[in-house]
Fold this sequence. Notes:
Number of helices: 15
Distance between the termini: 56 Å
Amino acid sequence: MHNLRSKLRRIDHNGYKLYKSLEGKYQFPGFTLSIDRTQSDPFAPPSKISLTVPLAQTGFPAGFYDTPVRSTAFRDALARTFAKNIRRLTKGNRGTGNSGVIAINYGGQTVLERNSIVIDKENITVRIVAGLPSLGRTVEAAEAEFMFFEEFPALVGEGFDMSRLDAKHFQSFITTAERREHIRMELGRRGLIAFIPDGAILPRRSGAEDTPLDGAVKFESPESMRIRIEFPGGGYITGMGVPRGITLITGGGFHGKSTLMNALKSGIWGHVPGDGREYAVSLRETAMIRAEDGRSVSGVDISGFIGDLPGGKHTRDFSTENASGSTSQAANIMEAIEAGAKVLLMDEDTSAMNFLIRDERMRELIPAPKEPITPYIETARKLYDELGVSTVMVTGGSGDYLDIADTVIMMDNYRALDATARAKEIALKHPRRITPPPERKMKVSHRSPLPESVDPSRKKREIDIETYETGIRFGRSKIELSEWEQIFDRTQYGTLGDILYYAKSRGYIDGTKNVAEIVRAIENDIRGEGLDAIFRGTGREWYYYCDVRGIDIAAALNRLRTLLIR
Length: 566
């Protein structure tokens, strides 16, 4: 500690780059301060700092972190506590650029595994980023000294002392997480793809604010779809179980169809207590699929949906730099299934209509030999029967889907009704001409990315990976993810970008391993070593990594415009 103070005073009002001489570990009363990496100038990404305390000193009960589920929930809640304390106990910006700004990765409404707080057998470490104070481009030692010797000890004292914290707050995060994971296990046991609890608040305040809408109608399951789940240790929950197969969500405009779909879409992750969707749970292998005009596609077999195109272009190995709505949606489906998806969510509002359905008049005007697209209505059942992939479709205008639906949920003023029997009556009353699907079987692609096409370098920089508002800049290319709808935290972009580099640097992307094998290898490493496996494998030490799924990794890889497939 005294050594750090002496160093600071020696470099005061000298060039900003001299902050690098501070990198190292310093012992303070009760904790270790580690300056892991310093920024090159006041406008560069902030410096990386970690504060480590012996677990025995904190008073944290072992029951808060003795299982992976508990540990994730506890550390998530603790990171949020640190974020509040940073706002309360630090001065914020002071000086040039981001001088004096301190931050931690703590998230919004979702509860995700993060590497901002790490627990090992003996210690607990909080990782923060800090803008080292400057005047112009010179060291401002007095402010830096205040940061290191006043603000950081205050953060440690307030955040790592159980006697100053609310145990009930942490316990609520832990209990919610454990119950949520129990519900997720019950989905598999009961042949369900999702669960929406009675009393859930699904509507959000706005598209920009993910908090629950005040005064919203609480969800109530149709009696015919209501299930009861008993929790270990006592207590139970009731709600709507959505079965495997083909499910339609229908109803009039503004009655809650998309709201229910959004709950299914976000149910792959947990939510904070009080969110209203804490126990709305979907299988992790759920993918939201939409048309994505203009995206690049590399070597995907979409022949199950789209036959050979004019000009003799076949679709068993389809590549394009500018996909149409229908070809992009077909590729999105096959890529998701390749990465392990077992449930596809689709909304007719964001789908290519000619991909979903073709009515009798258009069939007569454009006979089958002239139309390469086999509408999804004729392939959804094959996906389920042959590959075990379920579909949930939001529709308010495509009544032909009633013919193939196993379950029909009607939303009426945000109330869910089981309309399956009525839908089948209507389907019999108004039969449609059923066109048999193509004879060819649905095949899962096994594509092997070429390593030279996954290149994070740009100009003189060997690694140039940055995030922007809707995606990742990866070397000379961009990965646009604005229409991949299951990214709920901006830090997932940075995690995905570094994971692709990790896969390349570890030799997983070698031209022989297929996408599914690459994803499994990455997931196994993270499962065994935690998120720190990423920066141990790349040298890109970053404190803003958080959980992503294998499906998300594949989605990012597939949207890399330089991608080439063997």
